[in-house]
Amino acid sequence: MTLTAKPEDVGLSSERLARIDGWMRGLVADGRLPFVQTMIMRRGEVVWHRQTGLADIARDKAIAPDTIVRIYSMTKPLTSVAIMMLYEEGRFQLDDPITRFLPCFRNMCVVTDAGADTLDTVPAEREITFRDLLTHTSGLTYDFMRATALDAHYREKGVDFQGSARSLGEVVETAATLPLLAQPGTQWNYSIATDVLGHLVAVISGQPFGDFLRERVIVPLGMVDTDFVIAPDKVPRFASNYTKGPDGRPKLLDDGQASTYAAPRLASGGGGLVSTAADYMRFCRFMLNKGTLDGVRLLGRKTVELMTTNHLPGDMAQMGQPRFSESPYDGIGFGLGFSVMLEPAKAQILGTPGEYAWGGAASTAFWIDPAEDMAVVQLTQLMPSSTYPIRRELRVLAYQAIVD
Length: 404
What we know:
Blueprint: H1 14-29, E1 35-42, E2 45-56, E3 61-62, E4 69-70, H2 76-88, E5 109-111, E6 121-123, H3 130-134, H4 149-157, H5 168-175, H6 193-205, H7 209-218, E7 241-244, E8 250-254, E9 274-275, H8 277-288, E10 292-293, E11 296-297, H9 301-307, E12 332-334, E13 339-341, H10 344-347, E14 356-359, E15 365-369, E16 374-379, E17 382-383, H11 390-399
Parallel strand pairs: 7-17
Antiparallel strand pairs: 1-2, 1-16, 2-3, 4-9, 5-6, 7-8, 10-11, 12-13, 13-14, 14-15, 15-16
Helix pairs in contact: 2-6, 2-7
């Protein structure tokens, strides 16, 4: 995606934005990140797209504007759009129990003590609803949390949507045999909820989830490099993925030129996509335009407004014991597929009430600020995303550049 205007044309300072360059170079030079790429759009104009570092350290291959990366949980907003498209077709209501379509979730139980070594349970007081899944208040959890006995049972039973040889439906049905971490609707717990939503898309539409997302969302939005697999001709553009090594420098996790992403794999609604900065900015533009892009409308304005409104009684910190998520808890609420800024002062960060966001496990992130008519996409490939506070650092650098 080429730049379409100068920063000053949309109320940003080129001099202040240049601070992002120095910050990115520093992250790469001191060995914290293999590369970093940033794209900024305001008032419909892309005014900043810079990158530095190596997409493949071993091969000394520089990051390029069109480098493809694993976006992990930045898949979730697209899955949320897909299920809300079916909502707009009248297929279900948000307060409908998901057992209408997935009877395997009937008669669920809830652990009585999430911190205990055993899984003593009581019956669930009500069934899981679509809204519970969209807001991560369903009581489901993640296998990688490693915080409770229930998380361990997820691992033992193979409730893992990344690289599983089983079908989406089979993994979901296995998850339904395990108890819930909390009563539905009572706690915010980051979880496999969006993967379950992906399976619901398939069941309700009668079409495999991956096919639905490609045909109904990705292709209409012109996201030409976004998919669950890497096409052979695109492998050279696929970045490698890293973690922090013993010496503090990036250590290879997944070689981009020999990755499992190049073979058919499970279409995971919670974290399966690869994408580019330009592609994901098209998604951000679609959201900023309240459900339409280049003459194609996927969602109505009122639906987008509902999705990006906080659906919790307060912030995430008030909805249970904070565990890992791709967002801070204080001052941040959650809508239907996105975190939502409530109080920048409480979150202790520059921002605007009503902005919405999410991130991915390899330290990718985006946020959209309707009040400022602004969107930012940040890409790198370092796991886990909690390794360095680069999202908060970029937020300050992007917002301090607003001068109008």
